[in-house]
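Notebook entry, structure prediction.
Reason for the run: the old model in the group folder had no record of what sequence produced it. Starting over properly, with the input documented here first.
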Amino acid sequence: QCDWSSDVCSSDLGYYIILLPFNMKPTASNSSDDKNHENDILIQEDVLKFINNTANILHINYSLSIPEILSLYPFFYLSIPMRFHGTLFSIHAGVPMIPIYTTKKIKNILLDIDWKYEYVLDKNEKDLPTSFSSNKMMMTFLGCLKYYTKCRIALKEQYNRFKLLYKGQQQNIYYQLFESQPRELSNTIIPIDITR
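New structure, fully documented this time:
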């Protein structure tokens, strides 16, 4: 039987793991565990309790800015995001990924880019995960590694296609708002000053 944590964290494999928090909602000491389940630092600390060898793990337990987070992605070989923004950042940086998720928004973005390396968690009525199979995760991990170069190329191509699509939509919206209106109407649009 495969033990995901010990296999991946083994120094023999040469992987260095970075636990990068995205959601750090403050935790209230008087709140129930249900209120604190969104704090990534608490989740990371729970994960670390199950790993015997943490020598190759960097646990970032403080807030990083978006530019700081994005600056790390070019150094990543593979990403295992559990947040929507982690998935987006992986796509943006062209880093092959295995999102672990329960939400439709991650599923939809993976469908948009035709990405098949994923781990969909079983969930309860509160959308909280109920189980995890280390064997299934390891098989997905090894599959992504086996086709790593193809994955990286496909991800970059999909990201570039997505950027072109967005640029086309942006131009289309601008045209519909300003160019397709009668001249009198388009001249009456007043820019809003948002600095006030």
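Summary: Residues 12 and 195 are 55 Å apart (CA to CA).
The old model has been moved to the deprecated folder.
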